[in-house]
Specification:
Layout lengths: L19 H20 L14 H12 L1 H17 L10 H5 L3 H19 L6 H26 L5 H8 L4 H25 L3
Length: about 200
């Protein structure tokens, strides 16, 4: 009996042989993609939250790998960041997990899981549905991110948390959601075409 993670069919299940080794490779690959996306970052003014491509990576990982592997991939990313400089701008350490942007980091895990769940019920193969999926994932990141930012930096002031941790990023994250809504269904269409479906 082979050991594999219990997942429902997702995009990668259509193209990668089902095995425990493949699952491990996919989880590591998703974490690596997020780490690379984290290094493509910049800040504006004194805002403690950077602009990155992490959200896009999280959406792609969740939609492609599904709930279990997506969650494990982000959990691996969080753990790796304790020891390795894989968070935005090469940051690392436990302080990052409990600091201003820690909520966003934990939000990645929740978002990947939710996006993965939706992908498992065919919410990733159609542009409109994938857009909804992307918005759900992004909202989860905002909820945790803004909440932690509000308490750690603004002493519980959610108004300031929203002002600095959400409003400046809405357009940026909308673009990433649109990219994900194009890429994942496009990949599905390509796979179906190759398989003659």
């Amino acid at each position: 009996m082979s050991m594999t993670l219990t997942v429902k069919p997702t995009l990668v299940d259509r193209i990668v042989p089902n095995s425990f080794a493949a699952d491990i490779a996919l989880v590591i690959g998703g974490a690596a993609l997020t780490a690379i996306a984290a290094q493509l970052s910049f800040k504006i003014g004194d805002n403690p939250v950077p602009f990155t491509l992490q959200t896009l990576a999280v959406l792609l990982v969740g939609a492609s790998l599904g709930s279990v592997r997506g969650l494990l991939s982000m959990a691996l990313y969080l753990v790796a960041g304790i020891f390795l400089p894989v968070y935005s701008n090469g940051a690392h350490g436990i302080a990052e997990l409990v600091g201003a942007t820690g909520g966003y980091l934990f939000g990645f895990a929740v978002a990947a899981y939710l996006v993965g769940l939706l992908a498992e019920v065919k919410f990733s193969s159609h542009v409109a549905k994938m857009l909804v999926t992307s918005l759900v994932g992004t909202a989860a990141i905002y909820v945790l991110g803004v909440s932690v930012l509000s308490f750690t930096v603004f002493k519980g002031d959610f108004g300031l948390g929203i002002k600095y941790g959400m409003l400046p990023f809405l357009a940026w994250d909308a673009v990433k959601a649109l990219i994900a809504a194009g890429l994942v269904p496009g990949a599905w269409a390509l796979v179906k075409k190759v398989k003659g479906e």
